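Structure, all two chains, one model.
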Amino acid sequence: GAVVSQHPSRVICKSGTSVKIECRSLDFQATTMFWYRQFPKQSLMLMATSNEGSKATYEQGVEKDKFLINHASLTLSTLTVTSAHPEDSSFYICSANPGEGQAKRGGYTFGSGTRLTVV
Amino acid sequence: QKEVEQDPGPLSVPEGAIVSLNCTYSNSAFQYFMWYRQYSRKGPELLMYTYSSGNKEDGRFTAQVDKSSKYISLFIRDSQPSDSATYLCAMSVGSGGSYIPTFGRGTSLIVHP
């Protein structure tokens, strides 16, 4: 099946620095990727939708200047957390749209997630 | 009121028990209903999906959707320690709306030997 590779799986950074998270679709092209954030014991919250070759669409309340999303190719999307602060510590997960047929069947493919800790 | 409500648990059961996981929702436009399993520090993986109302069975797993009550369930028979994970319900509107799933907060399941 479709696989989404996400790196790094875990990162610790100092407050004020930037962190880049990569998401790659393996063996398929993902014209659309989604970025989620998940706090402990909370649901996945959609942050933004990225479309290859165009600007990302951010959900209400998500700072686009803080969470920079780039989707420069059909297989790679990146999320950069700029000037990270401790409150940005969370679990970030990407997901790829596998196409309408699979999307109908809930078959969004998720990356393995990145645990970001800002100290 | 959140669109999708799910008790976070944890739910602790002995091995071999029948597990019942549930979600309620408020948006009557939801047509596609999914259950995802998420192991600790991993991304979710699709377990079951159902379109509209009805039951669906896959091995030890049975998904039920009752649209009239806006209530969905996942049953796990003969539960195993390897079933210990967080189970997230999700649903989407589908055509005319969006297929992007709206998630519940997940129920933590612990199956002890």
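The longest strand of chain B covers residues 85-92.
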